[in-house]
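okkk here we go again. third time trying to get the zinc ion bound version out, last two times i messed up the smiles copy paste (missing a bracket lol). double checked this time i swear
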Amino acid sequence: EELQQKFPKVFEEGLGRCTKEKAVLKVKPNSTPVFKPKRPVPYGALETVEKELDRLEGLGVLKKVNHSKWAAPLVCVKKAGGDIRVCVDLSTGLNDALEDEDHPIPPPEDIFASMNGGRYFSTVDFKDAYLQIELAEESRHLFTINTHRGLYEYQRLVFGVQPIKGMCDPKNQKELRSFMGMITYYSAFIPQMKSLRGPLDKLLLKDVEWRWSTKEAEAFQKLKDVLSSDLNLTHYDPQIPIVVAADACDYGIGAVISHRFPNGDEKPIAHAARSLNAAEKNYSQIEKEGLGLIFAVKRFHKYLFGRKFLLRTDHKPLLSIFGSKKGIPVHSQNRLVRWSTILRGYDFDIEYVKTDDFGQADALSRMIQKFPTENEDIVIAQVEVEVEETLHGAIRKLPVRVADVQEETQKSKLLQEVQKYVSRGVWPKKVDEKLKRFSSIKESLSCVQKCLMMQDRVVIPEALQKVVLKQLHEGHPGMVRMKQLARSFVYWPGMDEDVERVVASCNTCQVHGKTPRKVPLQPWKTPERVWQRVHVDYAGPENGQYYLVAVDAKSKWAEVAIVKSISGLSTVRTLKDMFSTATVPIQTTTVPSQTTTSATVQPRRTTRVPKPIVKYDPS
Ligand SMILES: [Zn+2]
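finally!!
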C-alpha cells in the first residue's frame, strides 16, 4: 500500500508505458518492403475484431495511416477465455527482413545470485507487457497492419522435466530396442551406461525368448535414473544454440530440448512426453507429428520464447507447413494451420532429419504410455473460418453454388476416393492413372466443408467442369488469360488441356487471343477537368456476374454496373446508359482486351466512345 501511494502512476488502470527505453528494429540492408493484402475477417469474429481495433486505437497502440510501404495481414487468435487477440502475421515478410538480435537474458543462476541475502521478495506482473514498450519513431512504419478497415501503424511493440521416470517397462523387443537407441545416444556423455545396459542388450539378441524378470527391471530402472538425473542433463545457457526435437508414435509424443555445443555434440536440457488422448490417436501421422512439435514448443516455452532455435522433425511434409515464409498456407489441413499460427510467435528454423538419426525423441514417444494429457486449448486461431471463407470466395466466382460442388463431389467416385486419402493422410503406394494426378499433389489437397481444395482453389467435380469452362470462356479471353483465370480459383486434372481445347475451337478467341504487341508503358497525364477521361474495366466474375467499372481519372469517381455479359455490344450499351446520366467523356480507356476494342464499338462512333490508341499503364 505504501508503494501504491508512492507510485500511483504505476498502479493506474489502463495501459502503462515504459519510459526508460524505446524499441528500435533494424532492417537488413537491401531488403525490399513487403506489402501484403488484407485477409478476410471471419464473419463470426468481425465484431470482436472491430472492438479490439477500437480499443487499441483508443489506447494509442494503433494509429490509422493512409500509406505504408510495409504491411502485414492481421490474424485473429482466440484466447482461452474466448477473447480474440489481434495479432500480426509478420512471417509474411518483416521477420525475414529484420536483423537477428541477441537479447542477453540473464540465466536463472545469475538472478538467484543477485538475490542472495534478500529477505523480502515480490512478484510483479506487467499487464500487456509487450505493449508497454514504445516503438521508436523510425521503426513504426515497419509494423503496419492491413485490415478490412484500412492500414494501422503500431506505436508500441507487438508480440508476435521428469517424463523419463514415467516410462513403463518395455513389453517386447521393439519397445526395448527403441529405449536402447536412446541409451546409445546418451552414452557419449555417460560412460557408466555401457556397464548398466548388459542385461537388456541380451534381450535384444536374435531368437532370445522375451523374459522380463527383476534383473531386467532393475537394469531398466537404473538406466532411467541415470537418464533423468542431472548427470545427463546440461544447464540452460542462453549463449549456446538450442535444438528442439519432437516425434510421435501411435500412442504418444516425445520431445527433447538440447544444447548444441561448438564441437557438434548435443546434450539435453530437458525431456517431455505424454500419451495421446482418444481423439488424438485418430489424427493422421502428419498431424501427430505436428502435435509433437507444438507440444515441445509449448512445454519448453520459457527456454524458447524470444530467442532463436532449431526445430527438428523426421516428418518432411511439416517443413513446408511450419517452415513457410509466405504466411500461413491456407490449403493445409485446419489443425495444422492452427498450429502453424501458434508457431508464428517463435523465432526458429526448421530442419528435417531422417528417422534413423532420430533416436531420443522417438524413443520417448514410444515408451511413455500413461502420461497425463495437458490442455491444448491455449491458443486457437480462427483460421478454420478463414479457410472456409477461401472456399466460398472461390465458388462465388462460379456459376454454381457451394451445395452443387458438395453434392457433385460426393457423387464422384474418384473425388470420394481422393477425400478418403486426404483425410487419412495416407495414400496407397500404387494408384491408377486417374488417382495419380491427385496423389502427386497430395500435400496441397485438403477437405473443406465436404469439398476438395487444391491450395486455395476449388477442385471442380467432373459434372460441373463444362459449365465452369463456359463461364471462364465468357468474353473470349484467349488462351493465356483464360488459363490464368482458371488457375486463380479452380482446379481439376487436365484443366489446362480442356481450356486449350475450348480456345482452339473458338474463332473469336483465335482472332483476338493472340499475344498483344509489346509496347512500353506510358504514365497517364492528369486531365484538367472531371469526366474528361474515364478508365473502364471489368471486375469479376462474382456470383456469375461481372461488374463494369468506370473511374473518372480526375476525381476518381467510380460508376459500377452489374452485367451478365461482357460482350462488346453489351459494353457499349452499358456505357451509353452510364454516360447518359453524366456527360460523355472525351476519352475512354480500357485495359487492352478485345471486348471493348472489338469491332462492335466502331460502328457506334456516334456514342463518341473513342478507341484507345496508345497503350497506357492500366492505373
Ligand atoms: Zn472464345
